[in-house]
């Protein structure tokens, strides 16, 4: 076994917490881009499971192109009527025939998309509000084979870091709180966007929050609900951070012009907001422009051989593992660079940038980090099964 | 006039040239993602021009969702037959009615897409090889108005830097050389990908390069052409950098299995590679994962009010201007952060991270950079006309 | 009130029963063409009901273009897998805006199509096996108004006759027997075609009959089921006619080559048979090439003003009424010709061709027939409500 | 050689000329239904030619489902703007793979459709005004084989007659005159409908005639052009028949409300009129409801084995041949009924209904007609090549 090319170095950059201004965003699970991410990834999972169950092998595929075309609604307080459905256009490449068996690409893709919506959205009904069609086709000839041992055929790149900054933590958790808890308490939908700004030792969360038109009878109720939502979110957010947290909801509202954020289905996809894969949250759940980040759209890519997907996920998992197991590390960023022709567990270089908890980077810390990173690389193949078991969210 | 909130600070991070490993990628103009970027941006331009010509105003719009569904070809040396067309699915939001006049959204979008392909691709024919359809619709009600003075209604973010690193420069120029010059000399197409790796003081360019099936009669010719192309590219690339430059073309080729990169149209979109907007090059023309970067898809967004688009472009232009006009600056990265409710030329904060040419950051350099940055912000509105005149490429 | 222009004349032609050879066909309710007819008509009904409920008026519309694109299945005894869904492409014209209210054309059309499939098909599931999308749009400007009093703006034509010939009766009833009764007793689907031939005083019914793959384990079972089905159908058919009735089922079967008529959903739309409106049964439920017939596609057209639809239905209803109420008439064919600019109850000419029960046409018969026909014309407007209440099947 | 089962009998029915009222319709070549017919048939022809050229055989196919979804225009005198393109949805079944060669079904279909529009329409541009896509797929397994000797696998039916009635002749020739000649003289389009009514010894032609908006500056010009057109058509029509011919053009026009028949492309498909195959003219070029007719959509079906298509064409050709070669026959209607399992030239029964020129049907006439009909049946296979050479129009 070749020794892996691992570098552990001290981060030169300021810790994110020491930058005077920070912005972080999370698109909620009902945002049109998140819906596309979720559908793309679910198709990859269901396609892989179909292949395992029916063929005993995994097949190459790539479903990282899904486009959402917004619908149209006629909406007002207490009233909502779908005019035009939301359209989901699934592109993607897969293997139509294997071992003499036909592979139901389109059927798997469409059913996976519906399943995903059904399981994740409270009000949006894939059969009632959406038209989901598949334009998937075969890939280039050379990609249609069963995978035996996987080597990188491209120079690709993954990066992630851990832990989240305080602002990232607040933004992520507040979005999850609204999507998981508040939705059971107030008539709100899942298509939220939480934009966090840290400045002058205060946090401001600007939140787009859809309300359910059928459960709100007039402007007064809407305003009251906005206040209730703001209060609940504020209480929750303030419990996460000692600094002052300001909550601003639906700042573009203009009640006089009846411009408010009402929905029938809980997502702006019903009226005017299109979506696509890879345009939303990164694999760690946020968009953090001041952080090292990858442009790679992880969702929908195959978890067997797509370096871009696997290395981004592996960088996140390794970062988390380092923080968990090396208490002397306060902050870590992991970069993984693939090497053409080598196995995935043998990157060209794996770099960990470290902010130690105290003082400077010691050789003991370096050894500890190297060991954890090496171990994570060695277990590259467990990532695949974790993705197929849907143990992790990639957006 | 309020003074702008401009910060000029010394970069803590190592210069990109001092990082031991660097990777940079550029997708050529025929890559499926680049085709989508190009189409999306062209639609925005043509739609804006239509509105100016016919209504005398610009209208809100957003065409940053375009999906390419790959076609299918039957191909071999000397022979190529389109089986299934490439499909372009244009999503997007625009204003269907203004001042009592109907706005031909679908027609403008489809014709703009065809025009873009016709002008940029040598072999790909939008009428012969593609089916281009528009699924564009109206936006949410509040976005359908004419724009008077534009304030940011979101906290958004733009970042760019200048100059390119040496590797970025080589990757960018080599891709452009192939797309503009080599294509006139050898039977190659536009869907190239140049992946550059700098390591151990050498540059390696791994290049995917499509050859035109109809002009190549057999495997021997193909191999010869690959050699010719490699030689030409090597000569050009080596002229750009003193270090050793290695050229590797179509590394996945397997001539025994007839797995070679032949195309009918010059792009893999004809067979198995889908595309989408915002998934390729950034506004400065490359994908540079070790650099500060924005996830924002600039192409297709309206150049009037979309902060994400405008601030990314402005950050690039300001960086270039600083390098051009402040010789004491060797490297600059500009961050622009919008402020809800403020005009675009009044960002919440504009930050320039500086690597001075020599020594440390002096107050004189700070003043010079601040002045240039301030001037660039003041001319925010010229960016719009530069985009509408197609004076800049955003991908 | 102008007297109506009614002609009652003796039929010169032989009665259909006296022609030596007769062929008659009925496509079952699961035939792709019948599915399109059924969907088109249901959309017209649901759209009309929506308008009545929400606007208090009926609006012009025309949904007589619906196309079914066949899916693909992988099928064998005991096993069936959808590969590609059946696609329904709804075209059509309607009114998007009335009295300031938006009319949900696409939503009504898609939901109506699903409702129709759900109510009429035992195995075919619109959400599981089909992708139903609407491409409906506005009509030409002049058609977008509410209808007050309706005059024909075209010279159009309707024709029908009554009673059915003996062969027509057998074909119609056998098809209905299979679609309503046999389907509850044997594992068969709805996409049948019954082709009847009368010759040499015998009737031969050649029947295409789909069997449900999941309920049939092998070729032997299939053959046994075919025999069972043939026996049941023969018993039923023979009870309808004294002459010898021969039953031939799935004559194209080739068991050696595994070419048998197995389905997952009960319709060949799942694999290889497309469908369209107006290509199947006439309003009296059969295709009888030796009879006077109209090419008009009645299904999906608006029941308010579309002369072609209304006059075909009216000709059938009037024929039935004449036979019911004038016992001296054995056979009647009614032709109705519209008059540009006149109300629907004032045709240019209404002709009844009569075969009297005995002997020749008397003035008493003529008077009786004229009275019934006149009465039917006077009640033209009841036809609309009968169609909207779905009291009659048009295919 | 078995003797063919040919019956020659005297027609009992009145000659069409003796019926007091007659209506006949022809949809011009630019009518949405005619466009679909033309496209469907052209696809069949081009697909067949591709197979002959590349495989040396003909393959089973069926392209008789093509749907046109109307576009949208913004139009007025002197001004016309496409808003939404006309969409052509090609369904159909064909063979994707033969002799190891891939068959470019979609590409052939789309290019054939464009070729047809380009060759037949003066203003309508398939690339500028239309989006043409193919949804064609494989047929059921048993239909995917090469055809050797063709036997009918269904009881099917063809019927036609000759000569045209006087009214049919006027309607047909006037429509052709407008589509071929008048279009070169006046700014008119191809989407015409000529509805002819014979009554009281006069002919009335009610004609829908599209005018080209860009060539007409105002209502006065429009009215003048209508008068010019009416005069030219009247002169031509009157030259065809001695009886009085009345011409009525665009009777639904309402100049006060600006409701006139203006087009950009020459067809109402641009705004509000959908189309489908098999919904327009019969194989003899007209819709004649008082005549024996077939519901079969001939266009797009394969000319190798589809009995419905071949027998309708053969009935027309045989009728024409009988009239040409048997001067003692004034009028003939030919019915052809296929026989399951027999070759196409061996129908179950071929019937010719005869109106002799003078007096009653003699055995000499019977023999002559039988001989011509027999000869036509014997040459069944020449029909195929005539269709593939596009020597006949089927609509």
From TrEMBL, chains A, B, C, D:
Signal peptide: none annotated. This is Methionine adenosyltransferase. The lineage of its organism: Bacteria, Bacteria division CSSED10-310. It comes from candidate division CSSED10-310 bacterium. InterPro entries: AdoMet_synthase_2_family, AdoMet_synthase_3.
């Amino acid at each position: 076994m070749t020794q892996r090319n691992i570098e552990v170095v001290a981060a030169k950059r300021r810790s994110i917490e020491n930058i005077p201004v920070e912005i972080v965003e999370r698109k909620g699970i009902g945002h049109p881009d998140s819906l596309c991410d979720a559908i793309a990834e679910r198709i990859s999972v269901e396609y892989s499971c179909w292949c395992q169950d029916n063929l005993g092998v995994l097949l190459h595929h790539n479903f990282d192109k899904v486009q959402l075309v917004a619908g149209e609604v006629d909406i007002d307080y207490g009233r909502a009527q779908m005019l035009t459905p939301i359209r989901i256009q699934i592109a993607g490449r897969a293997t139509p025939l294997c071992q003499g068996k036909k592979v139901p690409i389109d059927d798997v893709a469409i059913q996976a998309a519906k399943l995903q919506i059904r399981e994740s959205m409270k009000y949006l009904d894939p059969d009632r509000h959406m038209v989901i069609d598949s334009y998937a086709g075969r890939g280039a000839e050379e990609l249609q084979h069963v995978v035996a041992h996987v080597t990188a055929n491209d120079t690709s790149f993954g990066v992630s870091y851990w832990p989240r900054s305080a602002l990232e933590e607040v933004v992520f958790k507040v979005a999850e709180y609204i999507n998981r808890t508040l939705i059971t308490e107030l008539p709100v939908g899942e298509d939220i966007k939480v934009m966090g700004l840290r400045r002058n030792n205060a946090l401001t969360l600007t939140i787009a929050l859809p309300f359910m038109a059928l459960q709100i009878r007039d402007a007064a109720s809407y305003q009251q609900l906005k206040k209730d939502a703001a209060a609940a979110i504020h209480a929750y957010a303030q419990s996460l951070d000692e600094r002052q947290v300001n909550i601003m909801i639906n700042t573009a509202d203009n009640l006089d012009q009846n411009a408010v954020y009402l929905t029938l289905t809980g997502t702006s996809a019903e009226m005017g907001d299109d979506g696509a894969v890879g345009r939303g949250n990164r694999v760690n759940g946020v968009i953090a422009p001041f952080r090292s980040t990858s442009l790679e759209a992880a969702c929908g890519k195959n978890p067997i051989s797509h370096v871009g997907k696997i290395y981004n996920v592996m960088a996140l998992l390794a970062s988390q593992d380092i923080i968990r197991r090396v208490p002397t590390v306060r902050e870590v960023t992991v970069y993984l660079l693939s090497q053409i022709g080598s196995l995935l567990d043998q990157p060209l270089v794996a770099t960990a940038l470290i902010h130690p908890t105290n003082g400077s980077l010691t050789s003991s810390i370096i050894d500890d980090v190297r060991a954890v990173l090496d171990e994570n690389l060695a277990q590259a193949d467990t990532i695949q099964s974790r993705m197929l078991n849907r143990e992790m969210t990639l957006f």
